[in-house]
Amino acid sequence: VGAGPAGCVLANRLSEDPSNSVLLLEAGGKDWHPLIHMPAGFAKMTKGIASWGWSTVPQKHMKDRVFWYTQAKV
């Protein structure tokens, strides 16, 4: 189970049954960068080592603009 917000809840619920074996995985790296710990520091880390770098497909009704979908990987 992935360790995102829903994954942690699911892992907890699955582990309540002693007959289940659950492994919780986290794909991100260590949170070593100082901006990660600063209030609003994430705003400066929308690209690079701490972001997955996802984007949308070109949006037809927005003149084929592509939008970045920022999600941290720490």
Write the layout of secondary structure elements.
Blueprint: H1 5-15, H2 34-37, E1 54-55, E2 68-69
Antiparallel strand pairs: 1-2
Overall description:
The protein has 74 residues and is mainly α. The protein folds into 2 domains: 27 residues, no CATH class; 44 residues, no CATH class. The protein is built from 2 helices and 2 strands. The model has no long low-confidence stretch (mean pLDDT 85).
CA(first)-CA(last) distance:
16 Å
Share of residues in strands: 5-15%
* Count of alpha/pi helices: 2
Number of strands: 2
Q: Which structural class do the helices and strands define?
A: mainly alpha
- Which consecutive residue ranges, at least 5 long each, have pLDDT under 50? none
- The side-by-side strand order for the widest beta sheet comes to 1-2
Largest beta sheet, briefly? 2 strands, antiparallel
| Gyration radius, rounded | 17 Å
What is the residue-averaged pLDDT?
A: 85
The figure for the number of domains is 2
Principal-axes geometry comes out as flat
Helix proportion: 10-25%
In N-to-C order, the SSE pattern is HHEE
Which descriptors would you attach to this protein?
2 helices, two-stranded antiparallel sheet, mainly alpha, 74 residues, 2 domains
Brief account:
This protein is mainly α and 74 residues long.
